[in-house]
Specification:
Strand content: 25-35%
Structural class: alpha/beta
Radius of gyration: 19 Å
Distance between the termini: 11 Å
Number of helices: 10
Largest sheet: 7 strands, mixed
Length: 329
Amino acid sequence: MKAVVQERFGPPDSLRLCDVGRPRAGAGQVLVRVHAAAVNPYDWHMLRGDPYAARLSGGMGLTRPKHRVAGIDAAGVVESAGADVRGFAPGDPVLGFCPGAFAEYACTAASLLVPTPAGLAFEQAAALPMAAVTALRGIRTVGRVRSGQRVLVNGAGGGVGTFAVQIAAVLGAEVTGVCSARNAGLVRSLGAAHVLDYAREDFTDGRERYDVVLDNVGNHPLGRLRRALAPAGVLVANGGGSPGRVFGAIGAMAKVAAVNAVTRHRLRPILPAVPDGPAHEDLLAVTALVEAGQLTSVVGRTFALTGAAEAVRHVEEGHARGKTVITVP
């Protein structure tokens, strides 16, 4: 099968499209015929092997990538299921977390897959797992957004941001989205009552206060972010795209926890939704919102499997609109 392979840590150009053996589904696993795979900041962190501190955990690999085939978000159809798998049959459309998603086939635990909502295109389905689950956790689980609250989403035009605006609006919040001028119309269409152009307006100037701030960008110091919070406000810091070769998101999240101990505000870190914890339940909650017509995927650009390196570079540059998706023929 064709797969996008990373033999070493490095820039997007180190990715190669190669012929590799098709994986097999073991006990409790499902083999997915991939039709589309989304690109996340997670992917370029894994590709570059940064932050260095994350290599010590064992999930990334110490001197070379632990996972040879890149990618994690996928949508496709079930090719086969291993022993002890119930509820999945060949041909069923599915989405979820599939290590090695940048390939024609990927194998994953059955618990990391859910049925694709009827009528949803593969590209839209692939956009959901990491970004939508991260947004759900940031807004509902960590931020505990309630009806009537004022919520600000920094990076509202990006992958997590477009989902976060919609989820906050569904919960009844008055949403302010911070994004580029070119994304203002999009963010309003997703449910934002107010939109701020980050190039012209500074939401940390203290003139407006919010009950919950979800920061997906990390372009303001914590001291200024706190100026945007109401007295009992919550800052949810999403460190998925945090720069820094040594500590990156780990260092940023540690700083959030340290400042939280000495301030009246509640500062809460949230790491991107990698396949752990209540991933299955969160995926089901996301697809339920899609089925109810309350959540939609914004796919900004698509690339062929042969353009995987360009797709990762596009996301790494930090200005992608919505989700970037790789289509697999």
